[in-house]
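just leaving the lab so this will be short. what follows is a protein written twice so to speak, once as letters and once as structure tokens for the fold. can you read through it and tell me how you think this chain folds. anything you notice is useful, everything is just below:
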Amino acid sequence: MSLAPHPASIRLSDLPPGARGTVIGLNPTGVPDPQLLRRLGELGFLPGEPVQLMRRGPGGREPLAVQVGETFFALRQVEAQCVEVSPEAGMPRRSA
């Protein structure tokens, strides 16, 4: 379940804390472990699912507390970088 980056998409890891979006798909670019994409899909990071970056760990780093659908997860930065999202309209974007 991979796709090319959508023009209006950003990575889940680039959402600011509290921001919401919708999962567009999973991007395999730079993924060190191919099983990672499968695991993310199994966890519910599927196209159309609502997602919110709740907060970041100490110092704005890992882990990232994320809600997808009705479920909460703690993700590593590398995992969150694989998830392409369409941010909610009017959301400020983090600079890369």
